[in-house]
Amino acid sequence: MKQTERIVKHWKDKGYFVINLITSTPVGLPDYIALKPNEVIFIESKEKRDKLSPLQIVRIELLKKLGFKVFVNFDEILK
Predict the structure, then answer these.
(1) What range defines the domain where residue 31 resides?
(2) What is the pTM of this model?
(3) pLDDT, tens only, 7-43
(4) DSSP of the chain, one letter per residue?
């Protein structure tokens, strides 16, 4: 199973409705948005050797300032 498939399955198994944003979002936004009643999270898919780009870091910081939780694969970004 590919990394992206594992990520989607992981969040769907937790009860989220997961939308793939890769093809429709501005550059730098996370790859997925996962929805539950009264909860929205963003998920960036990265392989083990990949790292966030400077633009992705800026976008993630903006999302967090707006009150959203952001994850890279399965780990929440806490900074």
Answers:
(1) 3-76
(2) 0.78
(3) 899 999 999 999 888 777 778 889 899 999 999 999 9
(4) --HHHHHHHHHHHTT-EEEE-TTTS-TTS-SEEEEETTEEEEEE---TT----HHHHHHHHHHHHTT-EEEETTEE---
